[in-house]
Amino acid sequence: MPTEVPSLHAAYANTFKIGAAVHTRMLQSEGDFIAKHFNSITAENQMKFEEIHPEEDRYTFEAADTIVDFAVAQGIGVRGHTLVWHNQTSKWVFEDTSGAPASRELLLSRLKQHIDTVVGRYKGQIYAWDVVNEAVEDKTDLFMRDTKWLELVGEDYLLQAFSMAHEADPNALLFYNDYNETDPVKREKIYNLVRSLLDKGAPVHGIGLQGHWNIHGPSIEEIRMAIERYASLDVQLHVTELDMSVFRYEDRRTDLTAPTSEMVELQERRYEEIFNLFREYKSSITSVTFWGVADNYTWLDHFPVRGRKNWPFVFDQQLQPKESFWRIINPMS
Ligand code: HAH
Question: What are phi and psi for residue 214, nearest 5 degrees?
Fold first, then answer.
């Protein structure tokens, strides 16, 4: 007799929410599966500025509405992603009508209009928003990433965005979200950024750890130090975009049609260790979202190597549980 597959989110009912990034088409083909295993969803792309607000006077809410309606109907929570980012934001946002760089006043009034409209539309239906994504520099000694937001508004653009989002939905939890969040140098920059926002009275309720990791790193100790450092700010932590690539970031090999057995074993061990660690910090970590549902689709199939298959999740390409699934449900250690 085939073993019944238990619900992943039910197994974590007393621990934290278990989420997945979705697309509208997946809700058609995999809706029941998603509703069985996840009690939080994030739109992978459909709420990003360029998708939801492609022109100044035009919002395209259809896809985002479909995702939110699905979640509401199934009793699933929604994380909103994302309001302020340097990527996937149309050029018009940063220009005036003559094509010259927008003034601080113009950009702030557009941001307010955008946040009022988008956050306001889903008020009460989105429990957490990634208000600002990836504002910290991670390649040089600079503190803040050099973006149009920084250049045209100035350093207070984050404070402004958080205040606007809080006004638009006072009950939504507001997050600062970033990647390479366990790197000690970047970790301190993220810590300092959020601390200075809190010192200024900004309504920041949490830090999002994207969690784009691989089977070799970061180490459990590095992840632990990041969790402890961020949690010391007394904010909630969400793991917002978890995946476990079978390749190191620098690895550009393209010869595999399936993961090697060494990769599979490392991934199983890592998933078990990482979820054991998350469980230890369940008083701070309130939500853990995978950046996809199952190995049949992941953004890593096109990043950093276009067209190279990856297998980063706990469900396989046929939506069947991998050994990693059983390890996070019933840890051996
Ligand atoms: C994330 N960035 C974004 O937050 C998410 O919106 C997107 O769908 C995928 C990944 C991580 C990232 C990147 O986009 C480029 C380089 C490094 C990391």
Answer: -135, 180
